[in-house]
């Protein structure tokens, strides 16, 4: 019985902690101890969210661990030199130096292994899609000017990593022509874009299409009747072909495949498929499915 009570208590605390984390992840706040590089991109402010802050914190901890290991190694080296002819003192200093380098290797190796497997493993994203029908997307959209939500938070998160959008503002209503929106973009796509930027830091990444579903697929403004992957909660974006560095990276490092989420030259990198998509009437672009 005592074990059952412990299990129930643990499950309760886990659920409670999950609710708090989910709520905190959706909230922008100004931390008492701000970390550079974790801001949401608001000009003149230091606002962040839990996902960005934890990603910055783990990098800070790794840097501090590496610095501490080097400091201990320096202290050990100094003790070794000062030990003179004392065997015991030299042995202790050598052991301290060895332990410091082992600690440094463990810290750096664990980080590099996780980052090489998937950069998302060393980043955090607690943004969860809402359960049930989201009020963000009307289920019976018409060609009238039904309001479309802002994508300010998605743009800020990606802008903080140096990822741009071809249009400075989001769509404002369903059916709006020639607009780009990231409102409700799925976490797989956001993490995939952040991973791509980490993987190719010198690439200029510009999003040319996101969740504005009525401009894709069969162009139906009724979202349930439009089969496109470009929709809220979806995992597809279009990227500009105007950056040669990005294009070369995708072609050189991607694995050519015969079929995928669209038609064209397909390359697979990790859990993403990059399609050099050509659609009549649209400029050539990378259609990316995560």
As a percent range, the share of helical residues equals 40-55%
Q: Mind describing the biggest β-sheet?
A: 7 strands, mixed
Radius of gyration: 24 Å
Number of domains: 2
Structural class: alpha+beta
Low-confidence stretches: 1-5, 13-23, 124-135, 137-143
Instruction: Give the assembly state of these chains.
Output: single chain
* Morphology call: elongated
Q: Count of helical segments?
A: 6
Tell me the span between the first and last alpha carbons.
46 Å
| Mean pLDDT over the full residue set | 77
Strand content: 5-15%
Give the helices and strands as they follow along the chain: HHHHEHEEHEEEE
Number of β-strand runs: 7
- Largest sheet strand order: 1-2-3-7-6-5-4
In short, what is this structure?
The protein is an alpha+beta fold and 290 residues long. The chain is 41% helix and 10% strand. It has a 7-stranded mixed beta sheet.
